[in-house]
Amino acid sequence: MVKVARGGSRLDVAGATVGLVAVALSLTPSLLPRPAWGQGLVSGLGFAVGYGVGVLLWRVAARLSKGRLPAAAEARAWIVVAVGFVGAAALMPFALEWQNSVREAVGMPDTDGFDWMWGAIGVAGGSWLAFAIGRGVAGGYRRLWALIAPRVPGREARPRVSGFATGALTVVAMLVVLSLGLSVLSFLLTAASVQHNRQYDPDYPQPTSPLRSGSEASLVAWDQVGQAGAKIVSGGPTVSQLELVTGVSAKEPIRVYVGIDVPGTFEERAQLAVDELIRTDASDRAVLMIAGTTGSGWLDPAALDGFEYLHAGDTAIVAMQYGATGSPVSAILTPELSQDGTSALVRAVTSWWETLPQDHRPQLVVYGLSLGSFGIQSAYADMADLQASTQGAVLAGTPSFTSIWSAAQASRDAGSPYSLPVLDGGAHVRWADQWGGLQTLAGTWDDTRVAYLQHGNDPIVWIGPSVIWSEPEWLKTGQRSTAVSKDMVWIPAVTAFQGVIDLVLSTAVPEDAGHKYGNLAVDGLHQVTGDAGLTDSAVDRIRAVIELYDTYSPVSN
Question: By its UniProt entry, which InterPro entries does this protein fall under (predicted)?
Fold first, then answer.
């Protein structure tokens, strides 16, 4: 076990040195700017991990030196701390310059200082957390070793073999304990999230329109819609608002939503969603959207409302909740729910839509944001299947582990950057990171149109496991986005860790940066699905209205 101090008065010099190097690395630029407390947390975690690595390396070196090096490189604690503070202070001018380069890249004003109080709290919290985890793991290892060692044969006759076997079995036992712990954690988080999902926001009352799920006329009871669904079926523009903004005659939009409290399998719930579409005469609408939700069942109101404005309400939106936990928890602990739930909905709705007369059925489009994008794409075998089964797709902030997206990125035309690819000259699939970006290519954009929306500084899109050990394509020369700081470089393990922190902090950025796509999604939906014959000024008014919406990040949903 690595001890931070001996007798409360001494610290390990080797550990502190490596820890200070880790602090310096933690200050380097990443995808998104960090507040003082966030930077402090990162630096504190980095110092604690570096300290442990430094102590371990010194002990290995001392053992290999056969007595030429002392067993521990310790010094008085105040000396080590003082040198550490001096080193950290020397790094701060560089840290400010690096952070300002990130802020400039995302369109934020420069900062001219550092909030030392919040930074210190972050460092203390991060260091404590890392040391506590390390001590917990070490303590667990010792206890399991003590339980396993007496039961391993051959301790007297073959002590080395017995010791190796004991160590291996202890590691396996720790992995089993970790797996069980994650299962318990998943159960507790799910239970808490389900209860939270049943706590409705009074600002979103039960809809009275029969065109909404949860109404008295609906096949989905109001108490089965859930908190996330209530905000969807109770929200959206009214007919008068649609007509005021668009300047044309409008219809009341259809919104179908099936919550997790509806009993049955995913397939049975998906069939209920289809029955709701039939009940509301969704087949008579101009456009039908299958929307993939995030982990909690959330959908971006800016995208939904913008879609309805574009088509003057002649729309139907159908969605189905597959879980109640936030997207990060869902993606890590229960990723199969997004795939299975969304796929069931896509299959059921598409099968029903295919039975409708070809000359009298709505345009079928799919939309997904973040884990919703992953879920939508999981419903199709490949890009060709997606294009053959739909009449358009808008996919925003697609996670890096999405196979169809990854294949499309890898198949990009020669010379086009990884951060914003061109595929087959943009004939069917296009990428954009800003409003109007889908129209920049000179060639014709044929049906079926697929639009990928991805910011160059979105950690959800770019950070994956491979970033730990290999330089990502999106950081290489000629491949990187202008939204990424010119000072950002790949550092093994560090860049991936910074990306995880960026994910947590991805809401503290302007609209149309990081993992926020509300405004950009409206442009994508316009380019893919068209509009209700609106004038350019009407589209400008829609954009102006949507830009007034509160900005959200699906990371917290």
Answer: Alpha/beta-hydrolase_catalytic, Alpha/beta-hydrolase_N_dom
- What is the distance between the alpha carbons of residues 159 and 154, in angstroms, rounded to a whole number? 7
pLDDT per residue over 360-370, tens digit each? 999 999 999 99
Residue 98's pLDDT band (boundaries 50, 70, 90)? confident
DSSP assigned state of 212: B
* Residues in Cβ contact with 335 at an 8 Å cutoff, skipping those fewer than 6 apart: none
For residues 301-326, b (16+ Cβ closer than 10 Å) or e, as one string? bbbbbbbbbbbbbbbbbbbbbbbbbb
CA distance 307 to 530: 10
Q: Are strands 315-320 and 287-292 parallel, antiparallel or unpaired?
A: parallel
Confidence of residue 116 (pLDDT cuts 50, 70, 90): low
| Residue among 35, 123, 27, 121 at smallest CA distance from 507 | 35
CA distances (Å), origin 272, targets 227, 229, 267, 269, 342: 19, 15, 9, 5, 14
Task: Report the Cα 280 to chain-centroid distance in Å.
Answer: 34
Report the pLDDT value the prediction gives residue 121, as an integer from 0 to 100.
79
Question: What is the longest distance spanned by two Cα atoms in the chain?
Answer: 90
Question: What is the spatial distance between Cα 238 and Cα 458, in angstroms, rounded to a whole number?
Answer: 33
Burial class for 274, CB neighbours closer than 10 Å (0-12, 13-18, 19+): buried
User: If DSSP codes are grouped into helix, strand and coil, which group holds residue 432?
Assistant: strand
Condensed to tens digits (0 to 9), the pLDDT of residues 70-84 reads 877 777 777 777 777
Helical (H) or strand (E) element with 149: none
Is the pLDDT at 3 greater than 50? The verdict is no
The helix-helix angle for 335-354 and 266-279 (nearest 10°) equals 40
Q: Which residue has the tokens 């973040």?
A: 370
**Average pLDDT of span 147-167:** 76
Please check whether residue 505 is in contact with residue 462, taking contact to mean a CB–CB distance below 8 angstroms: no
Q: Which two tokens stand for residue 19?
A: 């820890």
